[in-house]
Structures
1.
Amino acid sequence: MQTELSRRLGVEHAIFGFTPFPAVAAAITRAGGFGVLGAVRYTAPDDLARDLDWMQEHTDGLPYGLDVVMPARKVEGVTEDDVEAMIPEGHRQFVRETLAKHGVPELAEGEASGWRITGWMEQVARDQLDVAFTYPIKLLANALGSPPADVVDRAHANGVLVAALAGSARHARHHAEAGIDIVVAQGYEAGGHTGEIASMVLVPEVVDAVGPLPVLAAGGIGSGAQVAAGLALGAQGVWLGSLWLTTTEADLHSRALTRKLLAAGSGDTVRSRALTGKPARQLRTEWTDAWDDPSGPGTLPMPLQGLLVAEALSRIQKYEVAPLLGTPVGQIVGRMNSERSVQEVVDDLTRGFEQAVDRISRIAGRSGS
């Protein structure tokens, strides 16, 4: 399953796997794909360095990349305290009432509140890049579009390709103008932040808009036949995220959440602003319903919403409060009905791809005879 882009990067299969888990990213790379480690959860540069050290030890010298989250426009002098001060008290009260309604316990005194979405703030991402560029990463991806121009220049100076996610052909053209090397066309079906255009429509539009820049297809891809469809639409590879959440290498810290993912169907997700303030596809829960209810206060813009709900989500996850427990995930969750190793997932994708290509080849052969 090779394309011009996969050969350029030196990988066996044109499967690009995004994940917040180092063990999953490394396993994707070892299985012949291209593992991309999500950096947004790292608020301390030393923690990122620790896991990149681990990646170095467990990727057998094969290529991997890093995904950061940063705005295209540089913003100076804004601290986390500044952002916290912008959160209205009414929204804080709504969080307290929602947690109380479901009997969610408080964290123990002195216990850390867990991950806070400070990675949405530009300086955190820049600190991450100071670390990342000391490692032999081959790709830098940005989930919020084109990174600032100086970051693109710095990546290129380090021999690192830059990828950016796009939800429309217009966004993709902006990326091309900004000097991006790879556009990830992410359809409405995908987990996390998405636009409103489905992959079947979006991918060929983006391919036409930015060619000859390579495009990766993302959203609603979880089988080899779907990989083949993405390549048939003109993509040079696929970008997969949700599919790895139920692999044995993933570390969700919650068996209850894993069970919910395994039981969910493709109709059990919702595109909601409840997590970050931007539309993000995730499991539909009573938490997302509360925030999407017109009688509520409504969500805040990014990054206010993420900071507002960080401690609440930590409590929900720690105590596994099932009605509220969720995670970003795409509609492909309907196919994620068993726990498999990363290698088994990649084997299934490549086998299904070969079967799909053979099937189309037979059809093409008959029509040409």
Note: The mean pLDDT is 92.
2.
Amino acid sequence: MNTSIQAINESVQKSSSWVRPLQNEIGRIIIGQKYMIDRLLVGLIANGHILLEGVPGLAKTLAMKTLAAAIQTKFQRLQFTPDMLPADIVGTLIYNPQEGKFSTKHGPIFTNLVLADEINRAPAKVQSALLEAMQERQVTIGDTTFPLPDPFLVLATQNPIEQEGTYPLPEAQVDRFMLKLQIGYPSRTEERAILDLMATTNPPTDVTAAVEIAHIKEARQVVNTIYMDDKVKDYIVDLVWATRDPKAYKLDLNGYIQFGASPRATINLTLASKAWAYLQGRGYVTPQDVKTIGMDVLRHRVIVSYEAEAENMKSEDIIKKIFDTVPVP
């Protein structure tokens, strides 16, 4: 087994040579925010959609535009607004009176990277237009189904839902995001560097392509080969099950959880842990990899009860307690 893991290690190190140049290129435009950039790369190589939440002005949109430019791929930005319609995203059928028949007009979702900017500014019927695209990577217009380009990723930003003019995302929509990131303010040192770089009428926007799509697809194949021990697999299942049946794991959460994480969480936590190991240049997953990426995979999948809200307990508090209690292999 050691020989095979060593071979996977070598394969990972060989195929991940593009990671550092890509991080450096994004780092020229985005100062700090290492947490956000690392998770964007996890989603990219694990083929998972990402939801970023934070107050305006934290470079969420800029980071995604920079990533798209740095990987030489087709990119569309969709600004979600209250008056949007589903057809504005997926497309529609247009009647041609001369020919007496309908023709299909594809929407902007037919691209590789979709930036759904301020996704919670639009009502649920518009957000739900993304459901089929995010899960099946296809879109149905009329009675015809069209496959989406490969790769296809939705990178969405949202303002905290307490803000004016926002709508909560439907649970089915939220669950389709592999990761939900909570973006915070930069440090004082980083903000000083941001001032030096961006406080100009011509801020830098030129991004050099650092990686090709072929490298991303190769990385995804290598991620599939990364070794995960049965004990680590059991650990992942235990973490997800602890969100559904906390008493079985001796967790006294007093009915704080209304709904636990779905099986999609198990799949995504496995893939994200492998992708995190890949970014570290390793061909095997450790329990620490699971704990490092676990909060981002689970925070939006654990729905807290009214009792938890009354006691000001968030899903992050519950997940942290689960990570602290479930035995680590």
Note: The chain has a mean pLDDT of 87.
3.
Amino acid sequence: MSKNLTKRAEDYSKWYNELVVKADLAENSGVRGCMVIKPYGYSIWEKMQAELDRMFKETGHSNAYFPLFVPKSMFEAEEKNAEGFAKECAIVTHYRLKNNPDKPGKLMVDPNAKLEEELIVRPTSEAIIWSTYKNWVQSYRDLPLLINQWANVVRWEMRTRLFLRTSEFLWQEGHTAHATKSEAIEESEKMMHVYADFSENFMAIPVIKGLKTESERFAGAEETYCIEALMQDGKALQAGTSHFLGQNFAKAFDVKFTNQEGHQDYVWGTSWGVSTRLMGALVMTHSDDNGLVLPPNLAPIQVVIVPIFKSEDDLDAISTVVNELLHQFKKLGITVKFDNRTSQKPGFKFAEWELKGVPIRIAIGPKDIENGTFEIARRDTLLKEVVSNEGIVNHIADLLEQIQKDLFERALKFRNTHITQVDSFEEFKEVLENKTGFISAHWDGTSETEEKIKDLTKATIRCIPLDRITESGKCFFSGGKSIGRVLFAKAY
């Protein structure tokens, strides 16, 4: 099997696009800006979804589902949110087509089927959900309301890339209502930590937790918490956000409750979400010039077994050994593929599963059966070893844990060596163009300075780190007073 992948060092963007397609993750569809997620790619998303869903339910959340369409007047109720998404909205104006009398076999919009009110195809669901919450909340006894939904949304993007930015994408969006401000803030922070836990311990992607600046906040939020990851090309990627909405949506949709003192008050809200953009983060954090590299916790197939044989008798003997192995792996919850296809040679299979990022490959032939050994290859390091068949299952289980840990440590080392502290605009530009990565610098706290830096360099403030040290300093760009450093980077 010929991979023919562009090298990362030659053209990172092209390498990414080729890898997503050749590894059977996704492809462009016949609909502009939309993608088809193929079975192998979707199986990875399903593992992400299952783990996140478990984490959400462990923190008290329940799943529900809300309509895809939002009446325009409802969408406009919270002005900042509506303004923030206005340029990305797809709008339904008619509900029927009819035959075109001038073009037989073609359809046209029926002018008599115009909707009384236009419908927005949801770019996010705050409006429809908060209009529903008005009917669900009357008393403090109804709170907190902890709801999540798994859904698709539409944002009419002009420039699209598979997983990273598409006109339609899959995601989860949590929407919660609380009796007090402190409870809502605690919820927003809790969900940011859930996302960070998932990213680091499941995806093996280290992240920095922080707050967005005012200009980068979610439209309609009072505070946006985020986790920021660093890709191998030195660009940042926002991996998840959690928003403290204050009482903005409650006031817009008149969601009130009677508190314990018997007084009426508006509830306090949050929303939070991650999307199939995480698939892009996964590819760009770990993969190499040979193809995907998948953390074992996310790999649909954790181990592939490739038989080396010349005759049917050889394959039968190997299959007998492998079938016993499969039974033992299943008991440990390890997912294994026995690639016993006779239509492809071992070399083709090796290349295929390497491209698809299967963490461990086991090769077994007649000599291995005779010697009581297996050849094991790690996808992350490409190292091979010959091991005894005694205790092989436990050895593989331990190796999967080691690969998961090693991938995180490798990504963490890369991230940490690509955080550079600068104190001047010249240093800033030099790091941005040559070293790349996160740049830690003092900022005067003004949106004017933030916008000027973005215009001149295309770098944005990725976050104000939650663990930043408060220290007086001078903004590297304006010379104005600063109370601490923030992280800049070019980003996806």
Note: The first strand starts at residue 26 and ends at 28.
4.
Amino acid sequence: MARGKDIDGSMSVPTFYGKELRWQREAAGLSLEAFLEGIFFGKTYLSDIERGERRMPIELARHADRVLKTDGFFERHCEDVRKARRGAHAAYFEKVLEAEKYAECIEEWCAAVFPGLLQTAPYARALVRSAHPAALDEWVEAKVAARLARARLFEDDHSTPEYWAVLHESLLTDPILPPPEMAEQLDRIVELAERRRITPQIVPRTCGPFPLMAASIKVMTFPDAPPLIYIESSYSGDTIDDPALVKQYRKAYDRLRAVALSPDTSLAMIKAAAEDYRNGKQPDRLE
């Protein structure tokens, strides 16, 4: 079979690893389709890995070693590629940072803070500073800039994922910023919703017990790879791809969305809260 255009493996650890994968695949005479037989990943996904644009999941690395008879090479070095850091994000977030760019749909539930993809600079800065009170200003600003850069995916019409954010009412009524900055934060969500980039829903504080009360999660689905769940706490995070757990979280998220207010009602609440903050008022809580 014909060999593809050469890849510069010196650019980064992922490109070196991807170049080796493609060399081994082509040396074995396998097309992308033939290589992927027996595993649920698409051609585009594999091609992105070979160009160093995506990290290889461990199950695909093991598949490569089986098919190409590479004696565990790709499994052994999969962790090295995962550790190849990108920017100012925490190491545990690297897999999610990449996954967001390729997701077909992203669904988030946040009870305590607005999701990172929706945060303004003042809001992100307040959160980073609260978690790292002794950090240098330059370090904090690098974290803030990296977080804001993730939201660029809402600006590309061709790759914007479908995005749902289920938020607790307390995010509207219990401010962590001065009123003008809270208004700015809520205006950002309204702007994205009115541009049809996101769909926000509010879980009212009066709804009683509800699914996922003790967790904040992100559900990501892809056109060419299995779904992924991300759960996070203050200083750690974890991705989950076990099919049984993914299914359980998926069902819980759907039940949570069922108890939330409709998108139209939720957006009206967010707009009203933003206006209250602009006028120096405390937004009313639902009774």
Note: Residues 167 and 202 are 5 Å apart (CA to CA).
